[in-house]
Amino acid sequence: MCTRQFCSYRDAADRLDQLDATVWGISPQSLESHERFQDQYGLTVPLLADPERAVIRAYGVLGPGGLVRRSIFMVDPHGTVRYRHVALLGLHYRDVDALRSALEGVRVQAPA
């Protein structure tokens, strides 16, 4: 998990709530690890555990050496991926404003 990324979502929680979207984080760490991370930083985004890396593999973001690529997916209510951003390195992440822009683009393109 990227501490900067999730702290930025915490700090912009009011704007994140205005996106009218459900936001989750997911990584292979355990639930206990996620709980400690959330408590330590007062995070507001739910963190899901994927210790078997099934979801990570299904979304194609398992990198060399078992590393998970920093990724964002927007999935519509029917389960169709409408937006995908996968970073080669974990140094960059999408902030709330970038999420808003991507979500607006997804909504414009989504079938009626």
Quickly describe the structure:
The chain is α+β, with helices and mostly antiparallel strands and 112 residues long. Helices cover 39% and strands 15% of the residues.
Notes on the protein architecture:
The model has no long low-confidence stretch (mean pLDDT 88). The protein has one domain (3-104): 3-Layer(aba) Sandwich (Glutaredoxin). The protein has a two-stranded parallel ribbon. A hairpin with a 5-residue loop joins strand 3 and strand 4. It has 112 residues and is an alpha+beta fold. The longest helix has 14 residues, at 96-109. It has five helices and four strands; from the N terminus they run H-H-E-H-E-H-E-E-H.
List keywords for this structure.
globular; two-stranded parallel sheet; 112 residues; 5 helices; alpha+beta; 4 strands
What are the SSEs and their pairings?
Blueprint: H1 3-11, H2 13-17, E1 25-27, H3 31-41, E2 47-49, H4 54-58, E3 71-75, E4 81-86, H5 96-109
Parallel strand pairs: 1-2
Antiparallel strand pairs: 3-4
Secondary-structure-based class equals: alpha+beta
Which consecutive residue ranges, at least 5 long each, have pLDDT under 50? none
User: Mean pLDDT, nearest integer?
Assistant: 88
What is the helical fraction, as a range of percent? 25-40%
Biggest β-sheet strands, sense, barrel: 2 strands, parallel
Order of strands in the sheet with the most strands?
Answer: 1-2
